[in-house]
Amino acid sequence: MRTVMDSDRAHHADPAVPPPTSADVARLAGVSRATVSFVLNNTAGGRVGERTRAKVLAAADQLGYVPHAAARSLRAGRTGLVLLVGSAVPIGPLFSGFYRDLQDALHRHGYTPVLLGPTAGSGEAAARAWAELRPTAVLCLTPGLTPGGVRILLRSGTRAVLTLGTPPVAGAHALIMDQSEVGASAAAHLLERGRRRIGVVMPADPALSLFSAPRLAGVRAVAESAGAGAVVEPLPLDYTEESAAELATRCRELTLDGLFGYNDEYAMLAQRALQDAGLDVPRSVAVVGADDLLLARLLRPRLSSVRMRLTSGEELADLVDRVVADPESAPVDRDLMTVQLIARESS
Amino acid sequence: MRTVMDSDRAHHADPAVPPPTSADVARLAGVSRATVSFVLNNTAGGRVGERTRAKVLAAADQLGYVPHAAARSLRAGRTGLVLLVGSAVPIGPLFSGFYRDLQDALHRHGYTPVLLGPTAGSGEAAARAWAELRPTAVLCLTPGLTPGGVRILLRSGTRAVLTLGTPPVAGAHALIMDQSEVGASAAAHLLERGRRRIGVVMPADPALSLFSAPRLAGVRAVAESAGAGAVVEPLPLDYTEESAAELATRCRELTLDGLFGYNDEYAMLAQRALQDAGLDVPRSVAVVGADDLLLARLLRPRLSSVRMRLTSGEELADLVDRVVADPESAPVDRDLMTVQLIARESS
DNA sequence: AGAACGAGGTTACACGTGTAACGGTTACTC
DNA sequence: GAGTAACCGTTACACGTGTAACCTCGTTCT
Fold first, then answer.
1. Chain B residues closer than 8 Å to A7 by CB
2. Judging by DSSP bridges, how do beta strands B337-342 and A304-310 pair with one another?
3. pLDDT at residue B294 tops 60
4. What is the pLDDT of residue A119?
5. Do B241 and A294 touch (CB under 8 A)?
6. What is the DSSP secondary-structure string of A85-126?
7. What's the whole-number mean pLDDT along residues B234-253?
8. Cα dihedral A190→A296→A91→A95 (10° resolution)
9. Closest Cα partner for A79 from B74, B14, B83?
10. N or C: which end of chain A has fewer CB within 10 A?
11. Which residues, numbered 210 to 229 in chain B, qualify as contacts with chain A under a Cβ-Cβ cut-off of 8 Å?
12. Is the pLDDT of residue B5 over 70?
């Protein structure tokens, strides 16, 4: 506990004294509430004279008046809210930068971006909760929004819903972030390097299966199209060194010659374990990760990786602007991610 | 562009048809609006009979009625909003877990947590913007909130403001996350290992100085208290391999024998560069990082690190509950972080 | 001089809710 | 059989805004 200083005396607002309203400002300035509104929102040019204008501003300042967003948007019938519904998985630098970028861009466009963790049971119940806020747009960066949920949102006045999801969710614009491309890119590279028995490091954490499952599927798809002889083996890993050691022995038993890590982090863990188990990278096993982390370049051999790039926040904000402006338009789809394989010494 | 399917026909809500209100529900059910409100909020036990109750629910469901949060909180005079103002620096797994945890806990306590990036010019202007939302509480996890900003918030009805900041901000409860302890812990360890010429890896990114500056200060404080002979040398690093190589040569020129990395990531980069430059770790230079990342254990020698633990979200949510319940109480302060040095082979 | 006009300000209503206060039945009690 | 309680529902107001429509002057035009 800190000692109570004098300046702390007034640290609380007396609940008996409610926050000042525009009516209070009007009273103090000796004008009508409408005038206050005109001044504070400087509506319609020279509606109000310079003298009263000054009086109003002074009064507002003296009272510490702050408009009530709820009342305002109730009256206006719309909020500038854009709900950004994030995924539950721990986000790396890629996504955290993307979110920041996107928020900035939306802010510049006059919206009020709000980040929301996925509510428990992200189905229609969540959609209802979001709809209560009467957002202008909803960007759902995690799959799971149902057509029913979209209907609820649109019915409640949301002008545009953009969501991930395969297949595209009826009624919503489609954001596409095809994780299978990541696996496909890695697999193609490994096949090109002559590898035929490919292990795929899969996080044991079920929350990550959202990302890992499609990446595995991408590997599978490419392997199958490569004809017979190509084998794909999923290898669970729970992000500990012990688990990685087991994975390495498993790798040897299965005589795998290629390894795709779900992630650079998982790939790094796996590569280290392989080396500790006496396997040569890349001679006996080639390793590829994903994310292109700088840290992965510290390993020897340096880790090959699938680099992902996300759309700029500005582009996405522009898209939001467009679909909000014309809610009647046909559903749009936008690919958020491009992948590129960066080959280094590990493969 | 996706082909327009039949089910997409109704993908937009006709703007001419406004979202249904409780009045619409009342009309459809053939009851008064008050009854609708009683049913939907199931107020006061058996106010309304089973038959009409069912009718109301059916009507609400049929119309897809969703209450209007703004109107509701306008009437109620309070929102359950808790603003979580995050910092601008890219967050690692530690903080991202903390935020998630905190959001869950607040949700369980009946609040509506909302994550906000720090608005540009996080001064009184930001406070005003936050105050417009009439939040019940504001948790500012980044310094920069001024006493004036706190006054604005409290004046506008916010029942509790908790913020980081040294010294504590007048009027607000104090959240303490003393980054200097991180540096202090590392420095104490290095001194104990007999190192006297300590380099501190400092991120070149100015946004990170929020964290790095106090950590450096912590190192300095401990070094000074250790008496003469202890030298502290800040070493800029911009998170590239080239920059790390320069840092290594700088290290050699200065004949440093200990290195504290701002971060495990920065420390890993530095350690690798030292080794590439032919310096032995830990014999000639001992290295300590911070964050205790699993990845840092993959290096050889494995990286020593300062492990940080943050308060559980539940504890913090409890605190919020308490200070919200009694806004008149004296300012509380709460330490959010504890540090612990994990010694490994790199030091 | 009377009409037309613009500048400066006000009145009055609507937005969608929650709830206190108030009826009107019906059934039960003495 | 009148009082009364329990039950079920309604009427009416308040929350804090924005803005269309209206009013009141002083000024300018014909």
1. 147, 170-171
2. unpaired
3. yes
4. 65
5. yes
6. E--SSPP-HHHHHHHHHHHHHHHHTT-EEEEEPPPSSTTHHH
7. 95
8. -80
9. B74
10. N
11. none
12. no
Q: Which two tokens stand for residue A88?
A: 């539950």
Cα–Cα distance, B99 to B312 (Å, whole number)? 10
Answer yes or no: is B227 CB < 7 A from strand D: no
Rounded distance, CA A54 to CA B57, Å? Answer: 52
The answer to whether A47 CB sits below 7 Å from nucleic acid chain C is: yes
Cα-flanking dihedrals φ and ψ of residue B176, to 5°?
-115, 130
Least confident range from A157-171, A277-291, B21-35, B39-53: namely B39-53
- Chain B residue closest in CA terms to A113: B116
How far apart are the C-alpha atoms of B296 and B304, rounded to whole Å?
8
Residue A315, burial from CB neighbour count under 10 angstroms (0-12, 13-18, 19+) = middle
pLDDT cut 90: percent of chain A above it: 75
Task: Out of A66, A150, A157, name the one closest to residue B132 (CB).
Answer: A66
Of B74, B77, B174, the CB nearest to A74: B74
Q: Is the CB of A19 under 7 A from strand D?
A: yes
Task: Check whether B313 has a pLDDT greater than 80.
Answer: yes
The dihedral over CA atoms of A172, A175, A179, A182, expressed in degrees to the nearest 10, equals 160
The SS3 of residue A333 is strand
Cβ-defined contact of B170 to A7 (cutoff 8 Å): yes
3-state secondary structure of B222: helix
The SS3 assignment for B93 reads helix
Q: How far is B128 from chain A (nearest CA, A)?
A: 7
Question: Has residue B42 got a pLDDT over 90?
Answer: no
Which residues in chain A are closer than 8 Å to B156, comparing Cβ atoms? 13, 19, 64, 66
Nearest CA distance, B298 vs chain A (angstrom) = 7
Lowest mean pLDDT among A137-146, B118-127, B331-340: B118-127
Chain A neighbors of B239, CB-CB under 8 A: 294
Chain A, residues 122-181, CB within 8 A of chain B, namely 128, 131-134, 147, 150-152, 154-159, 168, 170-172, 174
**pLDDT of B195 strictly over 50:** yes
Preceding amide of B118 cis, omega within 30: no
Q: A10-24, A261-275, B332-346 — which is least confidently predicted?
A: A10-24
